[in-house]
Write a structure and sequence with these properties.
The protein is of the alpha+beta class. Helix content is about 30%, strand content about 20%. The protein has six helices and twelve strands. Strand 7 and strand 8 form a beta hairpin. Helix 3 (about 160-175) packs antiparallel against helix 5.
Length: about 270
């Protein structure tokens, strides 16, 4: 994870600086949804005649124009017109507390969708190397207008973000071990919960775009022994899904027809 300084010189003496700050907020909100920034609300400040933001990115080139979707491109252009200047991005260094590797596979044969309450990276992992996949790398499903017509300029990752926000909210409730804990655990653990249905639809949508399997991770906090857990069948298909060896040292279960993966319970007796 890289720490980036994003700045723009304010050459227009007549620009409304508060409006400029709001526009920068729009830019980073769009960039975070596209996977180009890991911070929807980065540290932002004015210094002399420059508007400066500090943000995290998965790659040095995450904020490159080639990764922009239509929204990021629009807000970048509007900011540059308002300031009468160009964006500047300077890599300050790597965050020593966020060191996950980024996938370098040319064409992964599968992906895994999963996250946790404290995940600061992408919720998508490569099924080949097990490393993180920036969302701006994957094709986006089309967005349709109110009349059902496809808008070719509006392809985005927003549907992935909404599922991720909901999952992380459930994960936080479960970690707090108070109000809502059991409900949150069921949402993450049951294959047919509302949260899992949304997540599995995300997987199907991504799979249509990339043309390879996309697996959905089911959390496991059952109060049973590990041996009992290993006897469990796939919750949907009913077949064997215990792997001989954990997949990427994390996933002990995998059902290919159902596109489900899971781990041995972390609450074993």
């Amino acid at each position: 994870m890289f720490i980036q300084e994003v700045s723009i010189e304010i050459k227009n003496p007549n620009v409304d600086r508060q409006a400029l700050i709001y526009k920068m907020d729009d830019f980073f909100n769009a960039a975070s949804k596209n996977g180009q920034s890991q911070d929807a609300f980065p540290l932002t400040y004015l210094h002399e005649n420059r508007l400066i933001c500090l943000t995290h990115t998965l790659e040095k080139t995450s904020l490159s124009r080639k990764n922009d979707n239509v929204y990021v491109k629009r807000y970048r252009s509007e900011l540059e017109k308002m300031c009468q200047a160009k964006f500047q991005v300077k890599t300050l260094g790597k965050d020593v507390n966020l060191t996950r590797r980024i996938c370098r596979c040319r064409k992964p044969s599968s992906y895994i969708l999963w996250t946790t309450f404290d995940n600061a990276h992408s919720p998508l992992e490569c099924g080949d190397c097990g490393d993180n996949v920036p969302l701006y790398r994957i094709p986006k499903p089309p967005v349709f207008d109110d009349k059902g017509y496809e808008d070719p300029g509006r392809q985005e990752c927003f549907y992935i973000n909404m599922w991720e926000y909901a999952y992380q909210a459930c994960s936080r409730l479960e970690i707090l071990s108070g109000f809502g804990e059991r409900w949150a655990t069921r949402q993450m653990q049951d294959h047919d919960s509302g949260l899992s249905k949304d997540g599995r639809k995300v997987c199907r949508d991504i799979e249509k775009m990339v043309g390879v399997p996309v697996y959905y991770y089911l959390y496991n906090y059952r109060d049973i022994t590990q041996e009992q857990d290993k006897q469990r069948k796939c919750p949907e298909f009913g077949g064997d899904w215990l792997l001989e060896e954990p997949w990427h040292r994390v996933f002990d279960f995998r059902c290919e027809p159902c596109r489900l993966v899971s781990s041995i319970t972390c609450n074993s007796r």
